């Protein structure tokens, strides 16, 4: 039984930083595709960043709105995914969700329906 649990959210002033974590329990696959999504009140859920790992390589990508400010990473065991967020602004407000699916993905990161597993979210507030 796979579970994803996010942590690390909180309140920060504009220009500040936060690091989100997504702890994975249970086995997904030797190849995984994982992403961070976020949703602000009254807005649609949007893809933020993704990372995909298999035996041969690791691939990552970012939404244009966060490129250069956010960094996605995964520990070597595949147990935890991180999102280091810096230079935060009010546009980054929202509930942040991690999502995962078995298999390697190199495109269409943003398609929420392709992800099988989702966490409950962690709130990020920038003021």
Annotation field: number of helices: 0
Q: What does the main sheet amount to?
A: 7 strands, mixed
Unreliable spans: none
Straight-line N-to-C gap: 38 Å
Cα Rg? 14 Å
Helix-strand pattern: EEEEEEEEEEE
Average pLDDT value?
A: 95
Strand tally = 11
Q: What oligomerization state is this entry in?
A: single chain
What spatial form do the alpha-carbon principal axes imply? globular
Helix content: under 10%
Strand content: over 45%
Structural class: mainly beta
Q: Can you characterise this structure?
A:
It is a single chain. The protein has 127 residues and is mostly beta strands. Helices cover 0% and strands 50% of the residues. The chain has strands at residues 3-7, 10-12, 18-25, 32-39, 46-53, 58-62, 70-74, 80-85, 94-102, 117-118, 122-126. β5 (46-53) and β6 (58-62) form a beta hairpin. The mean pLDDT is 95.
Notable traits:
7-stranded mixed sheet; 4-stranded antiparallel sheet; mainly beta; 127 residues
Briefly summarize what is shown.
The chain contains no helices and eleven strands. The protein has strands at 3-7, 10-12, 18-25, 32-39, 46-53, 58-62, 70-74, 80-85, 94-102, 117-118, 122-126. Strands 2, 4, 5, 6, 9, 10 and 11 form a seven-stranded mixed sheet that branches. The protein has a four-stranded antiparallel sheet with strand order 1-3-8-7, with no helix packed on it.
